[in-house]
Amino acid sequence: MLKCIHKIAICNSNKITYTSSRYYSTQSSSLRMTIIGAPGSGKGTQSTKLKRDYGVVPISTGQILREAAEEDTPFGKEIAKKLKTGDLISNDIMAEIIQKVLNNQNNWLLDGYPRNPEQAEHLDKVLKEKDIPLTVALYLDVPENILQERIQDRWVHPKSGRVYNSVFSPPKVKGIDDVTGEPLVKRSDDNDEKVFQNRIKTFKESTLPLLKYYEKQGILYTISSPTSDEGYIKIKKVLDQVVHKE
Ligand code: AP5
Ligand code: MG
């Protein structure tokens, strides 16, 4: 049922990575993170930078599901249908996926998981069994009007999940992926205003309660910033402190 999952970017890099403050081995550090944010808040965008600078392996549950939705099977069709509406996939399916992708990973960054308190409890249970608790929960706090603009201007390369924005980070050639030369597309859940509103509503109702959950654990860091560069500088400050504490 979940065979698409091995295709996901499990390209562990144990190289020495330079950050503004020092060199450190990403193998010995233990960044296990989740990144929480509304649709269009920049989870995927920031994940790419964090992979580059901290060697964390981004695991995007949205991208995993979009790949699963491409499969010509009843499961693939069921996922595709859900994605088009902006509703969440069931906790049971997500639990199976997450257990599989976390196997044998050290430094990872979950983009889009957990998405509700039940998923957070499940994640904690899985990590407790492995004795590797979550170290950071980052919340990207972006005003709602900005989210909608970003989604309208977003273009993606479906196979890799690479994200562009026609205003903020355009591809070198309009409509074409910089790396493969393949065409860029709109995501099926980005085109419809009603679906976007449903994703925002789902985020508020199901995902926002996670902020309290992680605040209680003392690992929540809120990044309030509408612009990427400023936001990323704040994220780096937080992570550099966390790595120093280890
Ligand atoms: P998912 O793929 O996670 O979608 P999402 O949460 O709606 O978030 P997006 O990917 O739309 O936005 P993003 O925050 O990654 O922003 P991005 O970096 O692209 O999930 C899709 C669906 O899968 C869900 O609706 C649900 O159905 C299902 N699902 C996933 N996980 C699930 C789970 N755990 N349980 C159940 N169901 C699940 O940036 C957006 C745009 O803005 C881009 O164009 C980018 O270039 C631009 N941009 C980014 N930062 C900036 C900036 N600072 N300034 C200007 N532009 C910027
Ligand atoms: Mg994303």
From TrEMBL:
UniProt cross-references to Pfam families, sorted A to Z: ADK, ADK_lid
Domain of life, per lineage: Eukaryota
Recorded coiled-coil stretches: none
Record-annotated Adenylate kinase active site lid domain positions: 154-189
Xref: PROSITE patterns: ADENYLATE_KINASE
SUPFAM superfamilies named in the record: Microbial and mitochondrial ADK, insert 'zinc finger' domain, P-loop containing nucleoside triphosphate hydrolases
Keywords, comma-separated and alphabetical: Kinase, Nucleotide-binding, Transferase
InterPro entries: Adenyl_kin_sub, Adenylat/UMP-CMP_kin, Adenylat_kinase_CS, Adenylate_kinase_lid-dom, ADK_active_lid_dom_sf, P-loop_NTPase
GO terms of molecular function: AMP kinase activity; ATP binding
Family statement drawn from the similarity comment of this UniProt entry: Belongs to the adenylate kinase family.
Protein name listed in UniProt: Adenylate kinase active site lid domain-containing protein
Species of provenance: Polysphondylium violaceum
